[in-house]
Amino acid sequence: MISINNLTVEFGGFTLFKEVSFLVNSRDRIGLVGKNGAGKSTLLKIFAGLQGATKGNVSIPSEIKIGYLPQQMNHFDGRTVMEEALTAFEEVLGLEKEIAKINAEIAERTDYESEDYMKLINRLSDKNDRYHMMGGENVDAEAEKTLLGLGFLRSDFTRQTNEFSGGWRMRIELAKILLRRPDVFLLDEPTNHLDIESIQWLEDFLKVYPGAVVLVSHDRAFLDNITNRTVEISVGKIYDYKVPYSEYVVLHAERREQQMKAYINQQKMIKDTEDFIERFRYKATKAVQVQSRIKQLEKLDRIEVDEEDMSKLNLKFPPAPRSGDLVCEAKNLSKAYGDHLVLSELEFVIERGEKLAFVGKNGEGKSTLVKVLMGELEYSGICKLGHNVKIGYFAQNQAQLLDENKTVFDTIDDVAVGDVRTKIRDILGAFMFRGEEVDKKVKVLSGGERSRLAMIRLLLEPVNLLVLDEPTNHLDMKSKDVLKEALSQFEGTVIVVSHDREFLDGLASKVYEFGNKKIKEHLGGIYDFLRAKRMETLQELEVKKAIVQEKVEEAPSENKLNYLERKELSKKITKMERNVAKAEENIAKFEEQIAEMEDLLSNPEKMQDQSLFTKYEDAKKDLENEMMSWEEFNEQLEELIAERGE
Known about the structure:
single chain; alpha/beta; Rossmann fold; 5 domains; 6-stranded mixed sheet; transferase activity; ABC_transporter-like_ATP-bd; nucleotide-binding; Val-tRNA_synth_C_sf; ABCF_ATPase
């Protein structure tokens, strides 16, 4: 479908790609990976025809339609959300106008027997056939379904696009691309402005889409759920792995280890050769050997290894004064903007040490509640912080509060205390500020760089309640790992507003779901919540099928598990799920071994091999034992799930 042949891209003497070649096939799901600046976004632009190459070529058949979603885009005003979405159907809308024009002309004609009139009728028939073939009568329904899937409300359809934030306008552009049904999707960080439900909808859409997908994302779960192939860009070269991201990580580590060994060996050989040349350069008797070694070095294909910090950075929060056991309590908390009610009569308690995830569709009040907690908004009802609570707050606008005239290093040096001051460069490196970048002034940093710098400042402040609003949007995989590890070890209380499931997994122990002006508490981690949500959806469908007229509210069980018991039960379930998965792996391994030995034993000569026959019998016993273990694990898992009340 798309063919890249010996592609070279250079920028002012710097080579981004060096003679790379690979193919994008019709059903590929490719994740482009590599460190920042490796060329991922550039490669998408080349695919989209927006940027050329220095050498080589990109071959795309003329009939192939490309759908490209960049990180930054231009927006056009003057249309409603629905009108803008419908521009995706340019040909259909053009046909509608032509059909209307022909119908109007026919209505005025009276020469029913003329040749021109018959030509007009034939044109109308052709246009109508084309219109129906393209599903013209369904475009409104398709646009509505896509906009709803991406989080818009029906009431949003008639609003002007310029009333929405940049993130929501990006969703409109994504909707248009999805509606055009291209042969190849090129998506550059498509999840940055989506909530969890919208991401899941997009995943479900892309999984069954018949075209190809090439995407750049720092969302591990999204990459794993979508991709079946990972293309790594490293020091101008392409490394093609026919596996999803998680499997790529393992294979990448193995390749890098081999690459490092070869690199070290080559460097030793180069040094030995250079030492020989230097030692015998002026000896006439060694002139031939010296010239031979010089030519040898000139012809050498030197191994390049991408810089990678393999050290483990343990970033810990500075000690903070201990807060009271009750961190925050709300009663009858409501918040409205004029006549628009966002939060209605909320009641909740946050205890010291809890790590909470705020999730829900955009516009449901997550950031509003955060601002109420921060004391930035007026509200009705009660919302009080506990004794000695000190808040550290991160939001996107935190980046604008940095001193523009200070350097990156000085910005962090101002807040660092104790031993941390000796590790400032390591900390900055973990968040993608390396080498000379630490001496840059804040005023020359991009929006993403400023956000990362603001995050580092927050990590070094002595607070006991951290409130983080979408903290991972501008972080790469390693930076997210560093942040997640630091938050996991943080002894205070954490509230995270995020759509990044992989980041929240293992971090949040309770989920607050925002919707319909209320919040609903879910005990357990983010994947417990997602599993429960899917079950709830199925239950709702069953209720609709049964045409139940009244919703019966379930009485709270007297034996309802408390939080600590449920948390411990979730751990047991997770452990048992791992046991089941491991047993299934072993069963597959034994079945494969048995099949191989059966093939061998089908050979009359091998039938006499007693040792092979013994191994065959042993493998069958191992399989039988593993099957018994698998059944026991499954029974125990079902009992645990039943105990949790699912």
